[in-house]
Amino acid sequence: MRIDLLCSGSKGNSCLIRHENTQLLIDCGSTKKYLMESFKKVGACVDDTNGVLISHAHSDHVSQLKHFKHLDVYSYCDLKDALDKHDVVPNQKLIIKDLSIQFLGLSHDSPHTIGFVVESDKEKLVYVTDSGYVPNQIKPYIANADHYIFESNHDVDRLMHTNRPMFLKQRILSDNGHLNNEDSSLNLTSLINAKTKNIVLAHLSEEANTLDLALDTFSNVLLRKDLHPSGIDVRAAKQFEILTID
């Protein structure tokens, strides 16, 4: 399985997954220019995409859907730009060619937000962003994966010292907001096992977080739990930088 996280953050989110003869796209935010250039950089063709998986309807996840609307689109939320939309629901499992997709119910302030578990015959990817917390009912599905792309949106103290209005801070901190570094790390360290190879901390706030803060928090939680996993590549995703798991 090859995974290219094309962009991640409040200005756009998109992830390309390829395995054998199957190509899936999770979300299509950002700009047309950036996404099309990113496809070229990773050697992919838009029209080879077998399915577009949409997590929710916020613009940073669907702003370029009109350029993918001729493809099969799978979502739990309402979408206006999809010509061939397939409705899915949490806990549903779907097979698209060589990959299976498990849809996960998340908690965000956009109706019907979902995450994904994508599996080949040998590998398992968990993709969870845009959730104020990790619901207990999805934890059995997301444990023991090979690869995690997992939200680590903000540092609480840094968020509170921004100039954002209090209502926005409260929204981000709420159960319908975004996972902070500490909660993300606590969840991840309870989910990983010996087969886990990659963790990508994703959807980082450019104002209320830094790559170093997110990574240091994860390392500190490992130390507090006296965990010493070997062979795991832990990275933090920038907003506009392709990050590849291969």
Automatic annotation (TrEMBL):
Record's keyword terms, sorted: Hydrolase
Ranges where the Metallo-beta-lactamase domain occurs: 11-171
GO MF terms, alphabetically ordered: hydrolase activity
This protein's record includes keyword Hydrolase: yes
Matching InterPro entries: Metallo-B-lactamas (IPR001279), RibonucZ/Hydroxyglut_hydro (IPR036866), WalJ/YycJ-like (IPR052533)
Name recorded for this polypeptide: MBL fold metallo-hydrolase
Annotated source species: Holdemanella porci
Lineage of the organism: Bacteria, Bacillati, Bacillota, Erysipelotrichia, Erysipelotrichales
